[in-house]
């Protein structure tokens, strides 16, 4: 009797197990767990694909925008190139008059004229006064150029153009050409042959107009090479060079 009961219980257990085992796979717990995991994975893949697509699209748009916004270059009479904006600033700089430092800036352009010509106020300005003489240093900073003016009693007495570089088709200012420069050489002869300088400084003292021209481009030399020429009026009064090739 006991054996029968045992066998009966075993049969019942086996039947229950058989019923559980024979359930369709889509009714089993493990099946839905796998489905849930797969669904979560699919959502993640879609999310990251969308994010990468958006990122790639933004990158392409930015690169396209950069290509479109590349400034147009213009050339001077010697073929030296720069942007239209730089050329306009260079021309404005050359039109601003420098007054005599020893005569309170007489003949120099006023601060208001410079500001109007450049169509904006300076990026940086500082004022000082010594023995009743008012001095102002005003600097206009641009992407490829810096213009600095010193005013005495509201008149320009010194004008500097710095941080500018031309794009030149050839290196014309060689050591041989440099050695030929003499006191009889004029400023116009130099610029007509070698192009306008990359940097300039102008001043007027006791009626003597003094300029300093510096070339960093269009010269036959390595990195850091330069040529600096000083003029009084049109005549060359001093010269120096660094790094010209032999």
Automatic annotation (TrEMBL):
Coiled-coil segments: none
The keyword Transmembrane appears for this protein: yes
Region (Disordered) location: 54-78
Transmembrane intervals: 30-50
Alphabetized UniProt keyword annotations: Membrane, Signal, Transmembrane, Transmembrane helix
InterPro entries hit by this protein: BamE-like, DUF3862
Protein name: DUF3862 domain-containing protein
């Amino acid at each position: 009797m006991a054996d029968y009961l045992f066998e009966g219980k075993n049969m019942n257990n086996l039947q229950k197990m058989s019923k559980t085992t024979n359930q369709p796979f889509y009714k089993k717990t493990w099946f839905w767990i796998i489905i849930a995991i797969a669904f979560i994975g699919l959502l993640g893949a879609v999310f990251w694909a969308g994010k990468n697509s958006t990122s790639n699209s933004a990158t392409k748009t930015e690169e396209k925008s950069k290509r479109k916004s590349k400034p147009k270059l213009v050339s001077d009479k010697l073929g030296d190139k720069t942007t239209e904006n730089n050329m306009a600033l260079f021309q404005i700089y050359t039109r601003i008059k420098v007054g005599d430092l020893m005569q309170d800036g007489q003949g120099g352009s006023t601060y208001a004229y410079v500001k109007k010509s450049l169509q904006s106020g300076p990026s940086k300005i500082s004022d000082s006064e010594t023995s009743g003489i008012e001095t102002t240093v005003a600097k206009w900073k641009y992407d490829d150029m810096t213009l600095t003016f010193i005013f005495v009693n509201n008149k320009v007495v010194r004008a500097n153009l710095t941080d500018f570089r031309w794009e030149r088709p050839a290196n014309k200012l060689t050591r041989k050409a440099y050695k030929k420069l003499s006191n009889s050489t004029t400023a116009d002869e130099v610029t007509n042959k070698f192009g306008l300088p990359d940097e300039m400084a102008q001043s007027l003292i006791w009626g003597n107009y003094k300029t300093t021209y510096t070339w960093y481009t269009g010269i036959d030399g390595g990195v850091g090479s330069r040529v600096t020429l000083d003029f009084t009026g049109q005549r060359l009064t001093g010269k120096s060079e660094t790094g010209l090739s032999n």
